[in-house]
Amino acid sequence: MPEQFYHAWIPVLYRALRLGPELKKDFIFKPPARQPVGSVLYQEHIKRAASCPMAEFAGYIMPLWFSSISQEHRAVREAAGLFDCTHMGILQVSGPQAAEFLEAVCTNWVADMEVGQARYTFLLEPTGTVMDDLIIYRRGEQDFMLVVNAVNEAKVKAYLDGLIQDIWIIDTADPERGLGLSPKIRDLRDPATGPDGMVDIAIQGPRSLEILEALVDSNSLFLAQLGPFRFIDCSIQRIPCVVARTGYTGARIGFELFVQPAKASALWNILSERGQQVGLLPCGLGARDSLRIEAGLPLYGRELAGPYGINPFEAGYGWAVKTQKPFFIGKTAIAEAASNRQMQVARVRFPGGKGIRPIRFGDAVLDSAGRCIGWISSCASTGSEQIGLAYMDSLHCTEGKVIGIYYLAHSQAQGRQGRPQTVEKGQQLQADLQGVVLPRFARF
Amino acid sequence: MVVQKGLYYTKDHEWVRLEGKIATIGITDHAQRMLGEVTFVELPAVGASFEKGQSISVVESSKAASDVYAPVDGKVIEVNEQLLSRPELINQSCYQDGWICKMELSKPNPTSGLMDADAYTRFLKSQ
After folding, report:
1. Residue A352: which domain range?
2. Is A69's Cβ below 8 Å from some Cβ in B?
3. How many structural domains are present in chain A?
4. Do residues B100 and B60 touch, judged by C-beta distance below 8 A?
5. Is there a single domain that holds both residue A377 and residue A408?
6. Which of A96, A222, A282, B59 lies at a C-alpha separation of 20 to 30 Å from A128?
7. Cα separations in angstroms, A298 against A165, A301, A305, A438
8. Nearest CA in chain A to B69
9. Structural domain contains residue A307
10. Nearest-CA residue of chain A relative to B56?
11. Is the CB of residue A63 less than 8 Å away from at least one CB of chain B?
């Protein structure tokens, strides 16, 4: 019997010999089955655009667009856009051990954050896989608000709850290790939370500040001075809310507003009505995606984790992983992955517009000799161009590098023409479209 | 949602206009609304034969690549080449200028399994 066989059994035997209640488990999450529901703003959406197509996203029925993706995209770049982000998960972590707890579970520094400051970070599994990317808002010395991806909300909550109960293995080299910290965790979107409840509405784009300034009851001076990743408590037409200069569109000026669920519709209508005067449009999931792609921002499930298993260093977010921290869950694995990097996410541009076949997830990226060097992870049409994010060989990720696209079959008819559904790295192919590598990020 | 009288419809939201042995094919108003701005149309080859239900063409928007299924059996005799440079005709005029192709019927009873305008309207409401 091979030696590895015995080695593989050592941790199993080790754990099997321990008594039941002390046994720790690997974190495995099975999402609960539930019927999709409308977002908090669903009634507003159907009033506004009865025929606008809706789609299920992370268990919520959300509008894909109100007018059209391209009009909404343009509104955010030139004026402002209003986004229903009420599906985003919002968790509160509080208590005397909250900062220490978050320091141990997040890849970025937490304890040094000031009250009123926000910070982007990752949660990793002990194996180094990205569990979620999120923004932490420090609302008090012992009070943090975590805005997590809607698709990951239940998973993150189960993970954090289990860490407090000390039931997960957090260090593969030391399966008995625990945090020994028990902050209080609350789901701020849960109707049972009461007056502290919060949901997220975003207003993004160059004219978003003047719209808020016209509506805010006080603190308007502070609003103009609010730096990126800073937030303040204020009230808009007597609706209390937290206004944060954060967002997911790449807009230089943009805000997320956190408001009680019961007041969300009123706030949405106030912003929408006032915003119309300067060209604000309500935006659906379509524009939300095309804007973040154009800006180069990663999406969990595409440019983070997902089918390509992309880590933060490959995604261009190594800065949010502080390997110099004494400990965080997944540190050993991610530090190793960081030093063995061969692939990374690049922002790429190809011709687009009418009559050019759209580039989609999985389409092959070729070097100038026609060899497959990676794949498209996301792509969006922005007028006469298609801007994509590609997971590709680092050697080719230099700005200005000429690359090609080979389309895969995304429909039956394309399959029948002989187009494959997958392509391996290194395969020799004939490019359908020629494009170029862009700078990793763009700001607008 | 516009459903035009006199045409026949499929559950996949294609329409057919029957004139003698010739069937003109396109996608419905409901289909174009669900797809959003159409940016690319892949047309079948003239002369190619298709059985009912086979994918005959692809209509793409930023949202999806959507197969268009042959609503009748027959041979393609003409395609709307205008769509190659002006795919937006499918959004602007799905029942007229946005037609996709014409087929010569190869089997009798082309309307079997298809819905008339009233039945298609009821079908949309039931969705």
Report:
1. 342-444
2. yes
3. 3
4. no
5. yes
6. A96
7. 32, 9, 10, 15
8. A413
9. no
10. A413
11. no
